[in-house]
Write a structure and sequence with these properties.
Shape of chain B: globular
Number of strands of chain B: 0
Structural class of chain A: mainly alpha
Order of helices and strands of chain B: HHHHHHHHH
Order of helices and strands of chain A: H
Oligomer: heterodimer
Helix content of chain A: 40-55%
Largest sheet of chain A: none
Strand content of chain B: under 5%
Helix content of chain B: over 70%
Structural class of chain B: mainly alpha
Largest sheet of chain B: none
């Protein structure tokens, strides 16, 4: 679940553009 | 006087700010369904994740941001995510909404297991933002200023960040003077909210720890 994803992971993914991961 | 370049910059930032909002589904869920404390907690963490994604998308649109060192980009976003999220929430809560919506959102936050010692400064911040009656341009620029704070942990090229932040501050200062000619202290009041945000950021770390334990 998203709540288990760290802040940095969320930021890195969003910066790379793959939000759906 | 706001130059043409500054006007173009302002438009770009406001458009990006408005374009990137949390998905409608979340907003709907927040307002429609009744939940217990645990579901409220889970829903709020999902919304928080979504808000971070929205923040990243917005930040990518700030001219010059993507030219910064990649690790500095991450450091800036990591250092400002909590503050930018509080800022966005405060703006959402101070918008004109149909009767009962604000109360419902407030209830959801209050009944999510967050202890009262953190709830009080949070709502006091929301209130103080609401009292400013910011226009959209001011909200968007203030968020950009928050993200582009040069002294976040692990930022290597602070000067490059400072240059970008100065550009935003200059536009924001001029805009405040134009929007609030009767209130020469308005710009200073906005900057004061950033100090308040830093305190909230500190509370937030403690709050997460106690929340997880509970």
């Amino acid at each position: 679940p998203a709540s288990n994803l760290g802040l940095e992971d969320i930021i890195r993914k969003a910066l790379m553009g793959n939000l759906e991961d | 006087e706001i130059t043409k370049e500054q006007q173009a910059l302002m438009k770009l930032i406001v458009d990006a700010y408005n374009k990137h909002q949390i998905p409608h589904d979340f907003a709907k869920k927040l307002l429609q369904e009744q939940y217990g404390a645990e579901e409220n907690f889970l829903l709020l963490t999902e919304v928080a994740t979504s808000q971070v994604q929205v923040l990243v998308e917005f930040t990518k649109s700030i001219p010059g941001f993507l030219s910064l060192d990649h690790e500095d980009q991450i450091a800036l976003l990591k250092g400002s995510a909590v503050e930018a999220t509080y800022l966005r929430s405060a703006q959402v809560l101070s918008k004109k909404m149909p009767t009962g919506h604000v109360q419902l959102l407030e209830e959801r936050i209050r009944k999510s297991g967050i202890s009262e010692e953190f709830i009080t400064p949070m709502f006091s911040f929301y209130k103080s933002i609401g009292e400013l009656h910011m226009v959209q341009e001011e909200q968007a620029l203030l968020t950009a200023v928050t993200v582009l704070t040069p002294d976040r942990p692990y930022v290597k090229d602070q000067q490059a960040v400072e240059r970008l932040q100065e550009t935003m501050l200059d536009v924001l200062r001029k805009l405040c003077a134009l929007q609030h000619p009767q209130e020469p202290q308005y710009f200073a009041r906005l900057l004061g909210r950033l100090t308040e945000l830093r305190t909230l950021n500190h509370y937030h770390a403690e709050m997460l720890t106690s929340w997880r334990t509970n």
